[in-house]
Model the fold of this input.
Amino acid sequence: MAQSTLGIAKRSQIPFKLVTVSGIIFLIMAAFPLFFGSFQISLMSKLLLFGALAVSLDLVWGFTGILSFAHGVFFTLGGYAMAYYLKLNLAADGNTYGIDLPDFMVWNGLEKLPWFIAPLKYFPIAAVAMVAIPAIFAYLVGTFIFRSKVSGVYITIITLAISSALTTFFISQQAYTGGTNGITDVSRLSIAGVDVPLNGLYWMILLFTGCVLAGSYWLTKSNLGLILRSIKENENRISYLGYDVASFKIFIWTLSAGIAGIAGGLFVPLNRFISPVYLAVAFGTQVVIWVAIGGRGTLIGPIIAAMLLGQVQNYAERVTQDWQLVVGILLLVVVVFIPDGLVGTIAKLFKPKQKVAR
Amino acid sequence: MNSVLSVKNLQVVFSGFKALKGIDLEVGDREIVTIIGPNGAGKSTLLDAIVSKSPVAEGKVYYQGKDITNKTPYDIARMGIGRKFQNPNVYNELTVFENILLALKGTHGIFASMTAKLTPQKKNKIIHVLEQIGLLNYASTPVALLSHGQKQWVEIGMVIAQDPKVVLLDEPTAGMTPEETYATGEIIQSLVHNHSVVAIEHDMEFVKQIAERIVVLHQGEKLAEGSVEEIQNNNKVIEVYLGREKIDVDAAA
Done:
């Protein structure tokens, strides 16, 4: 009897309004390729992937309170897995040297394909690697960080170090990674022998980003979401309620890296190359900016921010080369004046007034 | 006596400073033990050492006969020891309901928490706890909006929701009005039907309301132990501790 007035009963019901609105937006997004040219479709696909990447960071930063500059790294690790697959499946006549060995390996004097790259020629292996490599890497790093009770700003510093270290490492291993140029001139994506057209790729990516968003929403509304928010507010208290905080952090960290990896994998067929640029701190910072401007802990905010900034950047770069300066100023304005981000602030304005005690 | 919680020769050292110098404590089934002592006596440190918040340098903590010394805090919590901290340690960004839900016994695993459903039993249990702490009408209110005393009750509610065998309360009435303090005393007395309680307190009036057995700590050592009567008439206690408050006690009594 009293339960419905407590706002308790709402929890388990399906939010019909939300499902309807997101369904309509999804359909509009799905119709997008019918009205725009290939440049816009390709741009929009990339922005959707950046959106998914931003959501993956939001799970870790917005909900759990772990600020990471390494999400560009997880994205790029997935990207390399896919890039090797596409490079190794170039038709022999499309390959500069007409043999199985990618061009950059030939230039660097390799005579045969290294054993750890060879299996990526097969799609199932590459598809698994795209998720597994970033996820396993994140799991190892996460176990080290979170079990050793490193916390707060030190975690962030470690993620910066990871980003810098891997950038240097990938550049130095030119024979295996293509060095500064990365892996270029990759083949188009084909699944089971069928070429995937741009529209198909766009829909795949839309579906992926939709699933990431819906899955993250479901996850954060479950008890797990409650636990993550508690860890963010006060991680010590919750361990005295019987929760192993480190294992929750490692889980969400690894999951988020896996999502970022898939986004990176899908990015390569569009971008047609991957390089250490995406490993670098600058790209990791970009992801942080999307989440900060869109609104931490809102899930949809970071996607909107990634898309808006991407679209504006597309036009702004034709006018000025100092676009990054504009983004920098925008970030400062958001951090100082609207710390909840765009969506967070709007949501607060529309939220009904809470009952105040006494 | 059949002890639920048993502390033997417990020592805690903070970078050379001995905060606890060998404390023995026995807590029986469904018994209230009240710990008093001046500031810096080691009261909170004793509770911290029991739940592994502070590392035990020497000595042992047994719970139901099992050695739990320096086990992880979450293991100790899962075994059945609940802790309320000195300043209300609650989740301000969550609602009262969510705070209690979080503390509820049972779903501590990652995958279990993902798929956990709010069953009628759980809901009823939470409502029952909310009734006990008198906050049923505030279920969907964010804790940040509550008064200090109400936050204290939320945390007591969290400990009750954990359904521990042993409840450790660190100054449950700090910052409360006399009426709130009295209501808290009733909550604690109702707890004893199902739980053993160890409470740290300063308010002598409150101690008299709830106490069965009192332990007095002083400079990391146990100074005295006994009933309210015995403690009030203990010369050592009067000397170091009650002396300056005796007037208050008498005036209040």
